[in-house]
Design brief:
By secondary structure, the chain is mainly alpha-helical. Helix content is 50%, strand content 0%. Helix 1 packs antiparallel against helix 2.
């Protein structure tokens, strides 16, 4: 089985899940949506067209509910580089937390 690159659009949901897990990105909501859409794309041929459209519309609505999650996180989301927030807040439960 040939492996595809995550950016080529032909990656399986299993490969994508493994890739996201290795990068520690399975907790990011936009990555979970990408995985969800990939799984839906794989199941399309076995689904009733109306069910497929309903699932696709549901996924779209969920994606839109994320809103502008990327604001202030452009480097992380679009560039793949983590940048700590310029606003420093104490960790919950730390001595500095009030």
């Amino acid at each position: 089985m040939a492996t595809s690159n995550p950016g080529d659009g032909n990656i399986s949901s299993v490969e994508l899940a493994r890739y996201l897990e290795q990068r520690g990105e399975l907790s990011k909501p936009w990555m979970l949506q990408l995985l969800r859409l990939t799984k839906l794309k794989e199941a399309k041929d076995t689904m009733d067209p109306q069910d497929y459209m309903a699932k696709l519309q549901e996924a779209h609505a969920d994606l839109m509910r994320l809103g502008e999650f990327w604001k202030g996180r452009e480097q992380e989301v679009f560039g793949g580089r983590y940048a700590p927030s310029s606003l420093v807040e104490p960790l919950p439960g730390s001595p500095e937390d009030r």
